[in-house]
């Protein structure tokens, strides 16, 4: 499993395209994704589809739909940390205020020991 999955290309390059064509497709996708992040989180002038694109990229990067297991404890901890951040975003999007208060007060009290 790669540490940083970056597989958001919709189309696989054809065999005719070759490696150079695949690099160009990846560069275009990265350029487009960077623009979406900048518009959504930077300028506040997001275009239709930017939020979904960024959200899906973060879900992939944070291993939301994949196992975070690694036999290397440091890699495993890093991947779990990413996943925890994404799940926090989901909580704030989906839970109402009362549910959020319960979840995060319990977490706060546990950290205080």
Structure description:
- The structure is a single chain.
- The chain is mainly α and 113 residues long.
- The protein has one domain (18-112).
- 67% of the residues lie in helices and 0% in strands.
- It is built from four helices and no strands.
- The chain has helices spanning 18-43, 50-61, 73-94, 97-112.
- Helix 1 (18-43) crosses helix 2.
- The longest helix has 26 residues, at 18-43.
- The model is unreliable at 5-13 (pLDDT under 50).
Write the layout of secondary structure elements.
Layout: H1 18-43, H2 50-61, H3 73-94, H4 97-112
Any descriptors?
113 residues; mainly alpha; 4 helices; flat
Total number of helical segments? 4
Span of the ends, CA to CA: 35 Å
Main beta-sheet annotation: none
State the shape.
Answer: flat
> What percent of residues adopt helix (DSSP H or I)?
55-70%
Tell me the count of domains: 1
In short:
By secondary structure, the protein is mainly alpha-helical. 67% of the residues lie in helices and 0% in strands. It has one domain (18-112).
